[in-house]
Task: structure prediction
Amino acid sequence: MQGAGANPTAGELELLNLLWEHGGLSLSEVHDCLGRDVGYTTVQTRLNRLVDKR
Result:
């Protein structure tokens, strides 16, 4: 999927906003910053999809 140019989903945009606001964060830090009940592996999957979309 690399270079697919697909638009980010709402969940992916939420993560992008966190990263833009806080700068580079680890997976654990992103998960902690969400402030709501989202599974750790869900965050990991969304971040991996963003990497694939770049």
Q: What stands out?
A: The mean pLDDT is 89. The radius of gyration is 11 Å.
